[in-house]
Amino acid sequence: MTSQAPQLLSTDQGTDVDNGFLRIRDIRKIYRTRFGENLVLDGIGFDLRMGERLGVLGRNGAGKSTMIRLISGAERPTAGTIEHNMSISWPLAFGGAFQHMLTGVDNIRFISTIYNQDFQQNLAFVEDFAELGPYLREPVRTYSSGMRARLAFAISMIIEFDCFLIDEIGAVGDARFHERCDYELFGKRADRAMIIISHDAAYVRDHCNRWAVLHDGKLNLYDDFEIAYADFKELIGWTPPPGWPTVEASTA
Amino acid sequence: MVSRAPTKTPFLCSLRIQIRVLSALFMREVLTRYGRHNIGFLWLFFEPMIFTLGVTALWTATQSVHGSDLPIVAFALTGYSSVLLWRNMPGRCIGALWANLPLMYHRNIRVLDIYISRLMLEFGGATISFTALGILFISLGWLEPPEDFLKVVGGWMMIAWFGSALAVTLGALSHQSELVDKLWHPASYLIFPLSGSAFMVYALPPVAQKIVLYIPMVHGVEMVREGFFGERAHAIYDLGYVIPFCLVLSVIALLLVNWVGQRVVPE
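^ Those are the sequences you sent over. The predicted structure of the assembly is below.
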């Protein structure tokens, strides 16, 4: 019926800065495919507290998005436990949850009802943030991918979660949009916990304070980005071409 | 296997979340399916009404043999409305989860919620259509008001219960195998003539009666007709058979939903 992990996602209520935790232990995930069983995650585990931002590096298909889905509660692990007393977001800026036949406004109303929030207030925020103008009252299927990303991100911001899951946020949108996203996330919500996946190593370096490399179903944790990045490059067997800087130029 | 928050949510809170989620999903279904163009959500019951009216007209014109002295209009209305009820519910639930997979990202939305919201919509549409046409026919004098209103409701709920349990079962199975979708269409057409909408059980030879009474919706339709026409209908049904049948089917449905819920993979 409703949640097996019952969780009241009302604004500010769960923001327990001192005690918020996410505890992941021995998560395994096996997918049954036509080629037999595919072990995607082989016993990963970590703790995350409020204010910690974990950046996850890993090549395509390493299981980063699977991990995010498991933590978001959309999918269940084959084995292992995920315990938390924080409210955890859906994967941020993820537009899939939209009903494309409906207008932006309808989608905002839907999310507002699901999470028991004030619709008018949310509508005002999204209007201001997404800058979609009259398009907000048109079906989402008429939007460009950039417009969808703006709407998706704005809707993600109307619910105040303790822990945000961020899966490739930098992929779409223009510079001004990125700047505003960064301000909303890392400026206004610096006290929250975050798990960030990105192929943009500099983005992960600049915005996280803990790092991890996901490879062959195992997750290795690091407190130093340079070490994590070096390991990552070695694992994927990528040698930088001559003249390549040790780390890409900062985006900040 | 475990994903939990250490604090338990009290029952009342859960109930409130449940109601909120279902009403939001319901509104979303209505808007997605009917949109805001022309008569919008009125299609919810206009569509089944057109069906029923058409069948009523057809059966009246051809003077269908139905083996009783009941007026053909009444016969068609009770019969075809019931078909719409049990046939459309599975039709809407098959593949419903595929269409709504992204919703699984919202923690408070569970697989069963998606099915329930669609069932509410189907039940609402069929019921409003049945009631509206009933009232229309009664006011035109084509139909006598039901002799036992509560019995009509009871029979109707019986069909709805069976339809819902079947719908959730097939819906959950369809997530695992597309065969369900392929087979349901022919199956629903083949069951239709046997479902009791186009005949009265007592008009059949005893051997056929025995077989037909294994089909659960026959009992519901017979009950609806007894509610409408009383003794004249010569209804034959056995609640001692349908209720346990529906109970078992409901348990199967819930087990399957739970099974699918453990394995669902959002995009």
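The two ends of chain B are 20 Å apart (CA to CA). Residues 11-263 of chain B form one domain.

Shout if you want it in another format.
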